Amino acid sequence: MRISARGDYAVRACLELAVRPDDAPLSAEAIATGQDIPRRFLEGILPDLRRADIILSQRGARGGHRLARAPEDVTVADVIRAVEGPLVYVRDDRPSDVELRGTATPLVNVWVALRANVRAVLESVTLADLADGRLPNDIANLVADPGAWEQE
């Protein structure tokens, strides 16, 4: 699994909206500035978030973008799926659609298990969690393991 700039920027943009105390619309420029996201790149992401009913947009002098749902109802997985599609691919296929033969057959189970674990993490963390600076206990325990920070 690879989180692209598009996925990272989408989550950061939604987080910028989640921390707004008054739920007032925020301009694309303000989101881009607040999260150090190239504005033009962000403008390509916002329509996908709108189509996925994650954000609402309004035009005009008092226009801008805001979350369509409460931050506790939007997971990191929701945002990434909105801009990237399925969370885990194997050669452009969903893990459960991969067909392998011979000695490689058991590898499908590894790819499906990987998807299950990615889902377990990304579907359990909400924008509210991130806005509050906290993680669910299971995720916090993963991060607390020193081995999680090591590159291999």
From TrEMBL:
Pfam families cross-referenced by the UniProt entry: Rrf2 (PF02082)
GO-annotated molecular function: DNA binding; DNA-binding transcription factor activity
Which domain of life does this protein belong to?
A: Bacteria
GO CC annotations on file: cytosol
Xref: InterPro entries: Tscrpt_reg_Rrf2 (IPR000944), WH-like_DNA-bd_sf (IPR036388), WH_DNA-bd_sf (IPR036390)
The keyword Cell division is assigned to this record: no
Q: Which UniProt keywords apply?
A: DNA-binding
Protein's UniProt keywords contain DNA-binding: yes
Can you name this protein?
A: Transcriptional regulator
Which species does the entry assign this protein to? Answer: Microbacterium faecale
Q: What is the lineage of its organism?
A: Bacteria, Bacillati, Actinomycetota, Actinomycetes, Micrococcales
